[in-house]
Design brief:
Helix content is 3%, strand content 48%. It is mostly beta strands.
Length: 115
């Protein structure tokens, strides 16, 4: 899996659609999946935004058979961040097996113009 990188300015809302596919590139059916998301300075560090504390959301988009997870972090959360962070999105299936479906880096830059 190739890491995905994104850049936003402080205070911007992050809206990240993640398409989950099989080896042939076909969308996976996520009907029974529960997605989760976490972001930290680096692997093993304290999570600064994630679904565990509701500072981020990760939801399977309808129809679930299209294999898309939408991750969102509010601007009020990114307003307090600056720098580069590692993120990871996981999906847990009906038998509680958790797998990484996407990972990458998010760089939050300082605003050019004050809000």
């Amino acid at each position: 899996m190739r890491p995905q990188s994104f850049m936003i300015a402080q205070g911007e809302r992050l809206a990240l659609p993640i398409t989950v596919t099989d080896a042939a590139g076909e969308p996976l059916d996520l009907t029974s999946a529960t997605p989760s998301f976490g972001m930290a300075r680096s692997a093993g560090d304290e999570v600064v935004a994630g679904t565990a504390d509701s500072s981020a959301t990760a939801t399977v988009r309808d129809p679930e058979t299209d294999g898309i997870v939408d991750v969102t972090i509010a601007g009020s959360i990114t307003d307090t961040l600056i720098g580069t962070y590692e993120w990871e999105c996981r999906a847990t299936d009906i038998v509680s097996e958790s797998v990484v479906i996407a990972r990458g880096y998010l760089t939050v830059t300082e605003r050019v113009i004050a809000a």
